[in-house]
Write a structure and sequence with these properties.
44% of the residues lie in helices and 19% in strands. The protein is an alpha+beta fold. The protein has two domains: 92 residues, Phosphorylase Kinase, domain 1 (2-Layer Sandwich); 186 residues, Alpha-Beta Complex (Aminoglycoside 3'-phosphotransferase, Chain: A, domain 2). The longest helix has 19 residues. The protein is globular, with a radius of gyration of 20 Å. The relative contact order is 0.14.
């Protein structure tokens, strides 16, 4: 089946024979899925496509978006369809037109994320596992954040990295040393509903300065780890952090703990993209062990 026939077939299945695909335009969307804007006689849509073997990625993404849509005041894309066709899996979302990220946007974004983080749970984790990028993400429940962070976040990524020869025994030993004190380094807080993969590529400013988030890796975790992740690649205005803190103040010393929280996304990036991300990990381990 040609590319044109694939999109025509998928959209007819979900929206009826009256819909006509006029144009399919590639949209930058990372390295995991093929992402496109589909223009039809009934409007514009966003579609993500991968192999049929990766259908669970979209299934879990759909569940994460549904949970965020139920609990968050942030804009969450509406899921319009999903399934498999011609050996490919796909997820159809509403098309969100971009606006201008002004101070109103950043104020709303920070405040709304603070409100979302006030949505809590009795334990850290989630009732199902999902993914971070294309890697598995275990969400087995724990009472304590330190235990969850070690056993469900750091150790699984370290195993992947070790099995692939990306980290050696000396690095693993340093992590073991860090694990003995990690529970004392991060203040105890109730679990917060997290997007889970919040960086500059996973939000946008819609029309009327409305903030949208997408591509989630949802779970209930320590909210500092979400805020720490936003600092890894930049792209967040200072007003975002000010507005967040006004809504839901952080415990003193957060800036000193950012590196610890970011060990998880750095390990994920090592496993997805290679050893260039080890430098930041080594720096953190040297500082805290």
């Amino acid at each position: 089946m040609s590319s044109e026939s694939f999109y025509a077939s998928v959209f007819r299945y979900h929206f009826g024979s009256e819909i006509k695909v006029k144009k399919v335009s590639s949209v930058p969307g990372g390295c995991i899925n093929q992402t496109s804007k589909v223009t039809t006689n009934q409007g514009e849509f966003f579609i993500k496509v991968n192999s049929a073997q990766q259908s669970d990625l979209f299934h879990k993404e759909q569940k994460g978006l549904a949970l965020l849509k139920k609990k968050s005041t942030l804009g969450i894309p509406v899921v319009l369809g999903s399934g498999s066709e011609d050996g490919k899996s796909y997820l159809i979302l509403e098309w969100i037109e971009k606006g201008i990220a002004n101070q109103t946007f950043w104020n709303r974004f920070g405040e709304s994320l603070g409100l979302q983080h006030k949505t809590s749970s009795s334990r850290f984790g989630l009732d199902h596992d999902n993914h971070i990028g294309r890697l598995p993400q275990s969400n087995t429940f724990h009472e304590k954040w330190g235990e969850f962070f070690i056993e469900e976040r750091l150790e699984p990524q370290l195993k992947i990295a070790s099995d692939s020869g990306l980290v050696g025994n000396s690095t693993l030993s340093q992590f073991d040393m860090l694990f003995t004190t990690l529970g004392q380094l991060i203040p105890e807080e109730p679990p917060s509903l997290l997007h889970g993969d919040l960086w500059s590529g996973n939000f946008l400013c819609g029309l009327e300065s409305k903030p949208y988030i997408f591509d989630p890796a949802v779970y209930f975790g320590h909210r500092e780890t979400e805020l720490a992740f936003t600092t890894m690649f930049g792209g967040f205005d200072q007003q975002f952090y000010t507005s967040y803190s006004n809504e839901f103040p952080l415990e003193p010393g957060f800036d000193d703990r950012i590196e610890i929280h970011n060990l998880y996304p750095l390990l994920v990036h090592v496993n997805l993209f290679g050893p260039s991300y080890l430098t930041g990990i080594e720096h953190t381990l040297k500082r805290f062990t």
